[in-house]
Amino acid sequence: MAAAVQDSTTPTFRDVDRGVLRVMEMPGLLYWIWVAFCFSLVGIAAALWTRQIYSGLGVTGLRQPVMWATYITDFVFWVGIAHSGTLISAILFLFRTRWRTAVYRAAETMTLFAVATAGLFPLVHLGRVWNAYWLLPYPNERFLQPNFRSPLVWDAFAVSTYLTISALFLFMGLIPDVANAREQATGWRKTFYSILSMGWQGTDEQWRHYSMAYLLLAGLATPLVLSVHSVVSWDFAMAQLPGWHSTIFAPYFVAGAIFSGVAMVITLLVPMRKWLHIEDLLTPWHFDNLAKVVLLTSLIVSYSYATETFMTWYSGDKIEQMTFHMRYFGPWGWMFWVMVACNCVIPLLLFSPRIRVNLTALWIISIFVNIGMWFERFVIIAGSLAVNFNPSQWGSYTPSITEIMITVGSFAWFLGLFSLFARFLPIVSMTELKEGIAWLRKALRKDYAKAA
Amino acid sequence: MSAKPEAVRINAEGIAAPAAAPVAGAAFKGLLGVLVLVGIAGFAAGISSGNADRVWQAYLVNFLVWIGIAQGGVVLSAAYYLTQGRWAGATQYRLAEAFAGFIPLGFVLFWGLYFGRTMIFPWVLHPIPQKAAWLNTPFLFARDGIGLLVMTVLSLALVRASRRPEATAWQRNSADIEMPPPTLRKIAPALGIAFTVVYSLIAFDLVMSLAPVWRSTLFGWYFFGGAFWSAIVAIALTAVILRARLGEHNVLRDPTVLHDIGKMVFAFSIFWIYLVFAQYIVIWYGDIPTETFFIVQRVYYMPWKAISYAVVFLMWVIPFVGLIGVRPKKTPAILGAISLGGIIGVWLERYLLVVPSLSLHTIPFGWVEVLITLGFFGAFMLCSLPGLDLVAAAATSEWQEGHE
Fold first, then answer.
1. Closest approach of chain A CAs to the CA of B282, in angstroms?
2. How confident is the model at residue A446 (pLDDT cuts 50, 70, 90)?
3. Closest CA to B226 of B93, B82, B349, B103
4. Nearest CB neighbour to A238, from listed B216, B270, B282
5. Which sign does the torsion angle of CA B39, B40, B42, B43 carry?
6. Which of A237, A299, A446 sits opposite B193 (nearest CB)?
7. Mean of the pLDDT values across residues B173-197?
8. Chain B CB within 8 Å of residue A249 CB
9. Per the CB < 8 Å rule, is B286 touching A299?
10. Does residue B332 have a cis bond before it (omega within 30 degrees)?
11. Distance between CA atoms of A280 and A375, rounded to whole angstroms?
12. CA separation (Å) from A432 to A22, A98, A109, A438, B275?
């Protein structure tokens, strides 16, 4: 590959168009089997949820005192996954980062579907899901609901705002690319792309408005990246329960969210790059930089674990010390150590530049990070509830088949939606790749390509 | 590729030498020297007039403020390397490293705290048995001393490597995606990591332990986040002053440079208030007395309440409201005034963190505090003059390169 692109004039704009538009041609049978498989798992999960609604939360493993466990862990996990998209498309856009152009569309897509997945879990977790609207400020004369002092209500606001902005951001960024696809499409696709491109002609006037709107949306989305997961973290930081009361949670959860989100981007992009044959658009240079973000956020997460441990020891608070003792050495201690291995130790490999551009190694590390971050949330949420102030109230928790299959179903739902998007809409931004074509050419020419 | 940096290097060296006169004349240097003497005199007079507690409080506050600016600047330079930020060539790196000269002196001044330990740390005279394993004099000075030594060595190494020709060539060559020179690729991440660890320790030991019951897991992060922002406002103020002093031809005249610096002042001010709020809301909501007292003393009751509000205004409200939009960031007077306010805000904030733990009912502020602050300022500026000369050289030479 490196030999094929020696001179600095390739890839051309046409190569970029071809590379991306080729992906959007009608997929083969294997693809449809995969999509069908994903959605059949979603079907199973939906059936189990229906049963849960019918017979109540008794079908789950939730028992006093552990009333928040797998579902809420899934919720936080998916909200976390949603963070890389807006980080890459908004914050790194404002920072004028060069390597974001090839990866941001995929990250944004992932964001939208991850929020859409996360948003289901508070509903799944409800005993009486038909009362879910109590979370929203609907007209009610005595103002009984919503309870604005409940962090869950804050969640409802934060997550729905985030969903709105990420959807807007994604669809607005798509406009020039979809218009590009529209020119070459036929049949129903032509109608579909025409609707999405909203009459885009690529005039100077339109570009000017587009750029300004993109900049403003990026500015608007940037504080959201921090606020959403801060608010989510406060679900577990406001209480007086040891393990659920810590000031560091907000920035620590944000860093953890970006950590898991960027790892998920890598998990998805590495195979996608191969299957869709877009090696010349997504280069090791891009992955190298993504890996650095993973490493940075891993270090932040490690710092937070260490600070919490230190502060518990320093405080001299016996109850809190017991909570943390049980977290490390109790019956669920193995989860904590899995989490430390996956989130703090294994990512240290990314200090090596060779590993950062070795996509197989990077892919495996990213999967460890995903596992570790799921366990992190479980340890914090269920682990702290199981060990409270009074040892006679301590409890345990085992997930039931309902919770396991709904968790599996959430992955299937996410992957199914992502797969559909990846083949029917431009998963790599042609517009921005062309704007930064000089960097792409350099990335393909330089020693980055050698390592791949 | 091979020829290009070479050309830049010759150009840079050839022009840098004659273009810039020293930033400070003999009179200004003399004035700074006088300030240092005034500070020493104030220190001695304070001790001998029975104000030793106030002397040491002021000493600690000023130590935290000025080493925070110096160290935060070098960390900013490391952050530029890690993110490959090259929006103002070598000038942005020289600006960030301008105050590094104070770091070794700061390390020496840290040991001065040893002599004031009984006045500063309540647990020295009244040990807390449960916390004695952590809060004891030898261990505290050993760990913080080693930490600051590591920071000093790493900072000087980074600044040294960053001023080498191959590094300046890289700083000016923003058209490439090359990584920085190998030495910097190693020092920059090490410095960033060490900064978070050491400055968290400083926060826990030199600030939090003054109220030994109190704790907040975010406090370390909050503290070094504030130090980082203090460096950014110091850089902004320096850029605004040098922009005017260096005449028509300097890169700081380019409005996009001030715009970018203004964006950093704006963004990290918001991040600072975020770190404040993240602690405040958790403590307010939990309402646990061992946590709330620290906030209640400072935010709800006079006399400290007034200082708290002043800090929030200077470090967040004014930078946030004042720097919205492009024009204020590009207007030197606005950016400069907000940055000066920011530095005052940081000083008051460090004062607010330290002093109420030791003097709850009155604000000790008078000649002792003023003289010691002036002394620290003088020493800080004297140490920074060589760095500022390099800023001037870079700013003028890059202008000439860009406009030949």
1. 5
2. low
3. B349
4. B282
5. positive
6. A299
7. 91
8. yes
9. no
10. no
11. 35
12. 18, 10, 16, 11, 34
Structure tokens, B219: 């406090």
- Type of residue numbered A410: S
Judge residue A45's burial from the number of C-beta atoms within 10 Å of its C-beta, 0-12 exposed, 13-18 middle, 19 or more buried: buried
Q: Are B96 and B235 in contact (CB under 8 A)?
A: yes
Q: Which residues of B touch A380 (CB under 8 A)?
A: none
- CA B154, distance to chain mean position in Å, is 16
Q: Provide the shortest C-alpha distance from residue A299 to chain B (in Å).
A: 8
Task: Specify the pTM.
Answer: 0.92
Q: In chain A, how many domains are there?
A: 1
Identify which of B145, B139, B187, B193 has the alpha carbon closest to the alpha carbon of residue B163: B187
Residues of B in contact with A238 (CB under 8 A): 281-282, 285-286
pLDDT of A227 higher than 50: yes
Q: Which of A115, A224, A106 shows the shortest CA–CA distance to A173?
A: A106
Query: What residues make up the domain containing A443?
Result: 2-449
- CATH assignment of the domain containing A19: 1.20.1630.10
Express each pLDDT in B212-250 by its tens digit.
Answer: 999 999 999 999 999 999 999 999 999 999 999 888 888
Given this model, what pLDDT does residue B15 score? 42
Instruction: Give residue A447's identity as a one-letter amino acid code.
Output: D
pLDDT: is A380 or A11 the higher one?
A380
d(CA B279, CA B357): 18
Q: Write down the H helix ranges in A142-200.
A: 151-184, 187-197
Q: How far is CA A421 from the centre of its chain?
A: 16
Q: Could you tell me where the DSSP H helices lie in A235-283?
A: 249-275
Q: Do B286 and A238 touch (CB under 8 A)?
A: yes
Instruction: Tell me if B391 sits within 8 A of B19, measured CB to CB.
Output: no
Which of A150, A153, A301, A314 should be substituted to probe chain B, the one whose Cβ sees the most B Cβ atoms within 10 Å?
Answer: A314
Using the beta-carbon criterion (under 8 Å), do B204 and A238 form an inter-chain contact? no
Q: Is A274 near chain B, with CB under 8 Å?
A: no
SS3 B323: coil
- pLDDT band, residue A76 (cuts 50/70/90): very high
pLDDT mean across residues, chain A: 88
A123 at B interface, C-beta within 8 A: no
Residue the block writes with tokens 């956020």: A297
Q: Tell me the two tokens of residue B311.
A: 């800090």
